[in-house]
Write a structure and sequence with these properties.
Length: about 190
């Protein structure tokens, strides 16, 4: 009996495990850029987790947290920061310097990061909260529509990389010239499709 009480006292649910992890790392990747791929390989998973928690609980606290993260991720976009890629283009993407000697916007990184914007929009449009107001006074629906627009801008930034055969190609592969205009790996293009 005593063992059962001890185990019950320490029992948690997945939601409380999530909350415990959230509380122990409040900032997560806020304030990051993607220069070292931190948004693609870190923040994108935080965004996905927040969307999943909202879908599982229908609790708007997860939309509010997601909104804070999406605002900072949008502010870190190249065109918002006024930085450019190796071509001198400042687009709706998040450049990376980690894998090469010049700044490059990877299709996969863009897809992983932009997914959070699109998923917020889709989740709100499918929820009861579309016309409800967030704590800042804006409706969740207005945020959803704006975030879907941001995701569409990101996809459009890579339109020149789409091959009519049904896949994306690299613009320029800085360290592997043989891959110039070659097909991107499925794992990359799958993130943006």
């Amino acid at each position: 009996m005593l063992l059962a009480l001890i185990l019950a006292a320490h029992a948690t649910t997945p939601r409380w495990d999530f909350e415990d992890a959230w509380d122990n790392n409040l900032r997560w990747y806020l304030g990051y850029d993607n220069e070292s791929a931190g948004l693609a390989w870190g923040e994108s998973y935080v965004l996905m987790a927040l969307v999943t928690m909202f879908e599982a609980t229908d609790d708007p606290i997860y939309l509010d947290r997601l909104d804070e993260h999406l605002a900072e991720v949008h502010a870190a976009r190249d065109d918002q920061r006024g930085v450019s890629d190796y071509r001198g283009v400042s687009g709706a993407c998040w450049r990376d310097w980690y894998y090469q000697d010049e700044p490059y916007c990877y299709v996969g990184h863009s897809g992983m990061i932009a997914y959070g914007f699109a998923a917020y929009g889709a989740a709100v449009r499918e929820s009861r909260l579309y016309d409800h107001h967030a704590p800042d006074g804006e409706t969740y629906g207005a945020k959803a529509d704006r975030y879907i627009g941001y995701a569409e801008e990101v996809v459009a930034t890579h339109d020149d990389q789409w091959n009519d055969a049904g896949y994306y190609v690299f613009r320029h592969r800085l360290l592997v010239p043989s891959l110039d205009r070659g097909a991107t790996p499925v794992r990359e293009e799958g993130a943006i499709l």
